[in-house]
Amino acid sequence: MKWMxxxxxxxxxxxxxxxxxxxxxRCKACVEQCSFDATFYDEDLDKVWNWEAxxxxxxxxxxxxxxxxxxxxxxETPYRYNYSWYGHIxxxxxxxxxxxxxxxxxxxxxxxxxxxxxxLLNASQVTNxxxxxxxxxxxxxxxxxxxxxxxxxxxxxxxxxKLTPQIELNIPIMFSAMSYGALSxxxxxxxxxxxxxxxxxxxxxEGGLNKDHYKFKGNVIVQVASGRFGVHKPYLDVGSAIxxxxxxxxxxxxxxxxxxxxxxxTISETRMMPEGSDAISxxxxxxxYSIEDLRQLIYxxxxxxxYTKPIIVKIAAVHxxxxxxxxxxxxxxxxxxxxGFKGGTGASPQIVRDNIGIPIELxxxxxDERLRQEGIRQQVSIIAGGGIRCSTDVVKAIALGADAVxxxxxxxxxxxCTMCQQCHTGKCAWGISTQDPHLSKRVNPDIASEKxxxxxxxxxxxxxxxxxxxxxxxxxxxxxxxxxxxxxxLSEKDMEILGxxxxxx
Amino acid sequence: xxxxxxxxxxxxxCHLCEVACITEHSKSKDIIKAFKFEEKxxxxxxxxxxYPVSFSSMCRHCDDAPCVExxxxxxxxxxxxxxxxxxxxxxxxxxxxxxxCPYGIIKRDExxxxxxxxxxxDLCPDREIPACVEACPNNALTFExx
Lengths: 505, 146
Fold this sequence. Notes:
The complex is a heterodimer. Helices cover 29% and strands 16% of the residues of chain A. By secondary structure, chain A is α/β, with parallel strands linked by helices. Chain A has an 8-stranded parallel β-barrel with strand order 9-10-11-12-15-16-18-19, surrounded by 5 helices. A 3-stranded mixed sheet of chain A has the order 6-20-21, covered by helices on one side. A two-stranded antiparallel sheet of chain A has the order 1-4. In chain A, helix 4 packs across helix 13, helix 8 (321-330) crosses helix 10 and helix 11 (391-400) crosses helix 13. The longest helix of chain A is centred in the last third of the chain and has 26 residues, at 445-470. Chain A is globular. Chain B is of the alpha+beta class. Chain B folds into 2 domains: 1-58 and 124-146, Alpha-Beta Plaits, CATH 3.30.70.20; 62-120, Alpha-Beta Plaits (2-Layer Sandwich). In chain B, 21% of the residues lie in helices and 22% in strands. In chain B, the strands form 4 sheets. Chain B has a two-stranded antiparallel ribbon. Chain B has a two-stranded antiparallel sheet with strand order 2-3. In chain B, strand 2 and strand 3 form a beta hairpin. Chains A and B meet through helix 1 of A and helix 1 and helix 2 of B.
C-alpha cells in the first residue's frame, strides 16, 4: 500500500496535480524531484501517481517535466462559501486534529493593502529636462552610516571633520538577513558571489558565517541576534557592518527555532552548538531590556571592532516604530533597518506572521519624518525591507526616506523559489531552504549568482530610467523627495502618514 | 577535443540527460514518438545515485582508450572528431570493450538479433552540443575542451 487517506486527520488538499497521460513518457523525473513524497511511480501498473494531500504546489515537477505533462492547479475548497469563515476552516481543523499551532514560512500572504501600488511617480515635462540614463552619467552609489552634523575643511581644502565608518554600496539594494541554516550552503554562496560582483552586501543572518564564506569579506554584513549563534571576534572582523537583530518583520516579538534535524555537522560548527540540538533564539536579547541596554550592546560591539564598522539595528515595523527608532538612534546605532510585516521568514507561527506588524511603507514614512523633526536624521541611515518586489518599490522607498533597501524574498525568487511556503519543512524542492545535501545541489551557485547579478543590474537600470524620467541624476536627490510621489486611492489619513499629496494636487 | 564534463556537485538526479539521449538516438528524434511509438534506444548515459551523491556517467573518450585496444574486429575506433565510436557493421558482440572499460559505461543492446551491439556515447555527431548537455537543467554536464 503506497498511500491511503486517513479520514481522522483529513483536510482537503490545496492542489490538484493534473497529468496528461498521453504525453507522459514515464521518465520519472518528477518522481525524483518531488521532495514531499507526493509523486510516485507504480511499476506494476506502469503509471505515475500523485498523493495530492502531500502536494505543496512548488511546481518543481511541472518545471522539470520534459513533455509538459503536468499541471498544478489550486483546488477549490469543497466547503460551501462563507465570507467570514473562508480561509479559517482548514486552519481550525488542523489545530484540532494535530493539537499544535501551524508553522508557516515566507511572508504574510493575507490580502492587506500594498501601499506601493497606491503611489505614483513623477516625470519631468517641458519646465525641467528629463535625463537619458544610457547617454548621461547617473549615480546610484550610496553610503550608509552616521553622517556628521556639519563638515569643516582645513585651509588646503582637505577635510578636517573626522568621518565615522561608512559602508559603500554601488546600488542601494542589499540582500537581507537569511541565515546559513535557513538557507542552503549553495544559496549563501550565490548571494555572496552576487554581492561581490555588483558591489553591495549580503547579510549572514543569525546563523554565523561558514569558514568558507569568509572569502566574501568586504561584501558581508554579520548579524548578532538574540541567540548569539556563531558570534566571535573573527566573525565580527569579517563583517563590513554589524547588525543587531531586535525584531523581524515576519515575526516581531518572537524568537527563532531551527529544528535539531537541520543542525548538521557544518551548521553545528558554524553556529558553535552541539550537532542535532535545537537552535533556539530567544524572543528578546536577554541583555537588552531597554534603550540603555541596547546602547551597551552597540558600544560593546563597537569596542570589539575598534570603532571601524557601522552598527545596524534591525527592528520590525510595529505600531510605535517611530518612537522606537528615535530611541535606537540615540542609543548609538549608525544604521537602522526596518522590516515590514510582509517580510519573509524561514519559520514562524501562522498567527504571528499573518497578524503582527505594520506595512513598511507607513513605518518608513513615520520613522523618517520623526527623525527629521527631532533633528537626528543625519545621525543614521535607514534601510527598508519586507515586501520590496520590484525596482519601482525601491524608488518609492527611497523617495519616502530610505537610504537603501533589503531584498530577501525577491532574491530567492530570482534563483528558483516559487513561494510554496514550505521553508520550515527543510524539504525545499528547489534546494533553497534545505540542509539536505542532495536537495541543496539543486541550486548551482554559478547559475544562481548570475541570475542575482542580472536581477540587480536590471533593477539598477530601471531605477536609473525612472530617476531620469524625474530629471534626477543622483540617488541622493531622490532620498526623502516625497514631492515625487502622489497617492491614488488612499484615505486622507494614509496620505498624511505617508506625507504625500494626492494625485492631481 | 571537447568532451562532456561531469560536475557531480550540480547533478539533481532528474534523468533528463538520459531522456535527451534516448530522444536524440531514436529514429524520429521526437521525445513522445521515441518513448511511446517507436522502439526505444538505450540511453548512452546512466545516472548513478548513492545518497547524497548522484551524477551522470558516459564515455570519457579516453586518450588511451582500452576499449579500442581490446576490440578484435576494429569496430571500436576513433573517428575524425577524436571521439571513440562503434562501427555497428564490424561489431561481433564479444563484449571485450565492456570488459576493458574502466568506467563501465559501455552497454549491450540486446535487441540486435544475433551478434548484439555495444552501445556508447557518440557525442551526438548531428549536433553542435550533445543532447544531454543541452537538457541538463543545472549545468551538471558541460561541453568543454580538455
